[in-house]
Amino acid sequence: MKFDKNLDLLAVNTLKINALAAINKANSGHSGIVLSAANIMHTLFTRHLVFSSKAPKWINRDRFVLSAGHGSALLYAQLRALGLLTQKDLEEFRQIHSKTPGHPENFQTLGVDATTGPLGQGIANAVGLTVAESHLNSKYPEINHYTYVLVGDGDLQEGVANEALSFAGRQQLNKLIILHDSNRIQLDTPVSDVFNEDLRLKMEALGFHYQSVPNKIKKISKAIAKAKKSLKPSFIEVRTIIGEGSTKENTTDVHGTPLGKDLELLKEKLNWSYDEFALPDEVRDYYRQALDERFKEAENKFVASEYLKDFLKKSFEPMFVDLDLSKNDSTRNYSGKIVDYLGEKSSNWIGGSADLSVSTKVKGSDGDFCPVNRAGRNILFGVREFAMAGIANGIALHSTLRPFVSTFFVFSDYLKPAIRLSSMMNLPVTYIFSHDSVFVGEDGPTHQPIEQLAMLRSIPGVKVLRPADETETKAAFELAINSRRKPHIIVTTRQNIKSLDETSFESFKKGSYFLQKTDSPYALIATGSELKLAQRIGKRLNLNVISASNWDGKVLWDPNKSISFEAATTFGWEKYARCNVGIDSFGISAPGEQVYKHFNFEYNFLKHFVMQTFDLVDDNPEEDIEVEEIIEEPIVDYIEEPTQEVDYFEEESHDDIVEEFVEEINDTNNETNEYFLNDTIDLPTEEYVYDVEPTQEQEVVFVDENLIEDDVVETVFEESTIEEIEEEQPILVEETTIEEEEEEEPILVEESNIDEEEIIVTPKEKSAICGKESDCQLKLVEHHHHLTKKDNNDNNSNYVCFNDTCVDVLDSNEAKRK
């Protein structure tokens, strides 16, 4: 196609004026990037991007990520010029329920490849998209496309961007092309006030092919063409001027505000004679011709093999019921074996850990993914947790690959912003965290999770699973791999734990469930490693026991007659149990067994607490079962034998490549359609979009993943589904439960070696009678162990006990010592 300077100028001005008009109408948005980056956007879409508005989800299209998501108005103006949005959509910029939200959302706007806005994450997403392309290309050569990402100055200051860039350079991801809108102004200050890195030296040191060009269409186009030939990932710094042409150009004032009345001055300067939302016919035709020619050429070269079709349309199947796992092991070991098993069964399963596979036991199959083995499915992310999660999001965005990532649970804090976007984008990423509590021991409080469970449970749409044994771990993974639209977090133990005969594979998948059902009005609720402890106490005292390892927010029992056990913060448990046994402080460095004792997570201690709280009596204490100790694993994690250095990849036969257990993402109403291979779409219409309506049948590829129903039915756990027997329904709340006087709060004791019958716990006293005074001492560990109990007569009253003092925390939050 022959390009025309005059049409280029008119098209660029159209993008600018349309985008700025949308910002003005919304009275909100970022004008600066619209004027600085319009040339970059126009050049990419007219001269290089392989994309069609008639097949915006074609699997072999080039991907474009706007990491500088605050430039969304410019992207929407571009999509409108391609026919994917309308004038009405632009006029509704940043309005409720519109297709043009404040930052790009892939689930809201057709043509948006990734949800961006939090700076830097778009770079990690683009790296993930490139990883997916290079991996699939090694098996299916017909998958062959580029990933472009437009970044701003702020993107490059984010830690996640530096992690992702470092990873991309080391992996030589040459299909990644970064376009930098280098306008050198940010919201508060010039960039030079906060950033003095030499980008050429930095990018070359990271392993990138670097170019710097002026903001001219021809120069930008030549730089992109040169980048396509490079064997390295490419970084093109385009020297732009923020707010170019406006009265506020090159100032911080234009970064994040509408132009207002200055738009009229700009229109005069650009000789704009149309309505500000107009799309001239010649501009529409110019874009359509440029894109259609390239797309047809790429489409003619693309022949989807039967192997690729099978890969894209096959689905995971339930497979774990018959998987044999040993008893009394750590759930991290179970997790590692399941990950290996999935790698054997499904060629979609790809991922790795943040330099912790030896400890988390999580590792991908087929060798390490690297420049000489793109078929490898073990990704060496290095110590780059945030980028690891962002890259996993990009892999999941590509097609049907199912990414998993792993690190220590306490480091989930580093991943949290990317996990949030996983949920927002409805991506089925599996996060596998090990070392789930203070009981990891010697590493101390920096490596002992406390608040992480509560944090992750608070993220909308994220499924948090903390399995208690091999049965629940298998069920957790089955939930994760069969979900198409939800991220799953699986949290596992370092220490060995006792297997439970009562855990249920099928019940776990539905949510919280009864591990033990009795005629008692009281219940114990627990997750993960504490479920065994609750089960032993419940069995001894004939109490109901509920597994909440699959946290679903359902209340299965009267909270006033429940106690929760979890080796983490008690925050969030108040809704489900009036008494919460947890840890509301940081941990301590000591061997695991000592940590158990320090925080009083011991059978005898907690049994007496339960008895005292519910006013129960153990009729035959001498018949109590002995504490069953599990042999701890060695303090030092197992060190695996060094893996052999990866040799050059030898192409596998397609029989080895195509596996049975691959996720099928098909429209269930169309049994014959092939994912991304033969669907067409109806474009939004406005009277000037097309002279002729698009043909009904196009051999193009599109399936909107976000419209596909998940096969996994999210079962609402109603009381009637727990047990069918009517008399076994949850006990209703009664005001007469657990009579207790305010001054009769429990004084908690450490477990000792004396007989239980000698322990006398007297709430009114501050010491215990233990035979000899030296045999035991009644106390709580100061600051570290936190038990709360709500008074029946005053639901706003909480008692917090430290050492020999109970403090009543009143509504006024004034603490009164008793």
Which features characterize this protein?
5-stranded parallel β-sheet; 23 helices; Rossmann fold
Describe the overall structure:
- The chain is of the alpha/beta class and 818 residues long.
- The chain folds into three domains: 5-306, Rossmann fold (3-Layer(aba) Sandwich); 331-491, Rossmann fold; 505-618 and 726-817, Rossmann fold, CATH 3.40.50.
- The chain contains 23 helices and 21 strands.
- The strands form four sheets. It has a nine-stranded mixed beta sheet. A five-stranded parallel beta sheet has the order 1-2-3-5-4, with helices on both faces.
- Helix 1 runs antiparallel to helix 2 (31-47) and helix 5 (121-139) crosses helix 14.
- The longest helix is centred in the N-terminal third of the chain and has 22 residues, at 5-26.
- It is elongated.
- The model is unreliable at 627-675 and 687-818 (pLDDT under 50).
- Belongs to the transketolase family.
- One of its GO terms (molecular function) is metal ion binding.
- Residues 329-499 form the Transketolase-like pyrimidine-binding domain.
